[in-house]
Amino acid sequence: MSGVLLFLANQRRRFRSSETALVLLAIPVGLAAGLMTILLSGTAHLLQSLFYGSDIDRLSAATWIAPWRLLALPIGGLLLAAVAIAVRKRFRAPVDVVEANALHGGRIPVRDSLLVCGQTLISNGAGASVGLEAAYAQIGGGLGSVVGQWLRLRRNDLRVLVGGGAGAAIGAAFGAPLTGAFYAFEIVIGAYTPAAIAPVAAAALAAVLVVRAAGMPAYQIALPSAHAIVTIDYFIYAVLGLVCALTGILLMRLVTLMETRVRASRLPELSRPVIGGMLLIPIAWLSPQSLSAGHGAMHLDLTAQVGLGFLIAILLLKIAASAVSLGFGFRGGLFFASLFLGSLVGQIFAAAIALVPDLPPIDATDAALIGMAAMAVSVVGGPMTMAMLVLETTHDFALTGATIAAVLCASTIVRELFGFSFSTWRLHTRGESIRSARDVGWVKALTAGRMMRRGAATIDGSTSLAEFQRRFPLGSVGRVVLTNVDGTYAGLVPTALAFAATADADAEVRSIAILQEHALVPDQDVVSVMKMFDACETDDLAVVDGRGAVLGVVSEKYVRRRYAEEIEKAQRDLFGE
Questions:
Q1: CB contact set of 242 (below 8 Å; sequence gap of 6+)
Q2: What is the pLDDT of residues 278-329, one digit of tens each?
Q3: Looking at the whole model, is its pTM more than 0.90?
Q4: What is the H or E stretch that residue 489 is in?
Q5: Run of H or E residues at 341
Q6: Into how many domains does the chain fold?
């Protein structure tokens, strides 16, 4: 047994010190992510077959659904409520892959991944307007996190493995390794890092090989037209990117408004998914295309010749269904829903262009594919991720070039007017100030409580100046913390100021105290600490607890040195040094 433990310890050290070992580790993580993607997809399809009939292939492509079968929507809400009852005393809000990499150094509890996947499966299986991509990314990233934590990987390596696992699962879902790799870089890791390229690529390729070996064909959204893309088309598609950006912002605002209003309402929390399911019934009755993620509906609308009025109606119904689903507590993401909505916006845009005199017409299929990518960038983020999705599903380089123009335009507009993707926006509404998955967890961890020096010199504020000068001779300490009779903080007194004071020697030392109303609390992060130093224009600040008792003192010089050290370390991690 001791030999086995020694071997495992040696392997852990090897994975911590070798970039090649990390690449080799990413391969089985990618293989497992691919297998879990197949399992999740099959389970969701099985649930939809049980709820809506075995003849259902793609739920959103159904031309008609018996009204009684739409009761699956509130039944799904009831199942979600049952899950919430079972776990509400043991679970806080689950950590997703973006939050884990941004704030927790890649650490995702296993139970969080299982909970997110279970809730997403129930929501999608019951027909709510949410996609499975959130579950795919969660299980892939969760696998990477579990393996990395067991091997005690360094913080940056763990984040890379989480990103590789999540990207591998997304790549497996679309049969598109480049899409998965760029998803990892842009959305989960938050940067293109030299140290991450090989592990992420290895994981994505391994996952795609698994799904292809299992007989799943590469995802084919639609075939591009034979229409040649000329220079003016790039400008037209850039305008389409602008339209998609504005629509994406509207969608995110609407979903957030719905969530906020529902939370502020007097509706019992556990009844909200059931009520949401009831509200989805009339929407689904008007058009089954509003159900589930929209895979089947996208294929149907791209291959059939449908009118402008029909496209506008489906667009509005799908937006409403997505807002109700997420607002009332169904679990899932907007990844594929945004792709579907973008394809609708693209087709509507092409029809509108055809009505404008003197403007060259554009192909509706091309516009749908470009709109799909631009809308997904607006909501999910990742310009190159969506451009690679178009490339890998159409194999058309000219169309991909136009797509890049549109997605860059959409990304710029969203960053300028809104500033967030949907995942980071939801974290922002919870009070987190992050805009991407870039690692800012070290900022949260570097707190006043960790940087303070305990055992600071203290004295009662009612002590006389003469006694203060006797107890703290000039040069003995730089500053002394004053306390009240009950031990609470009462200000700071620089020793030099006490000796330079012209007040009566019998006067209380509190009469020359500074910063009586300014002190830090232990959980303040380094950024807010530096802001307080700038605002107070002082060299030292006291740290107090919730009752006002003095815990220690922090110096500005030390805070800025620690901040510079962490910034330098993050830069080294970024370049794999």
A1: 409, 410, 413
A2: 999 999 999 999 998 888 888 888 877 778 899 999 999 999 999 999 989 8
A3: no
A4: strand 489-494
A5: helix 335-354
A6: 3
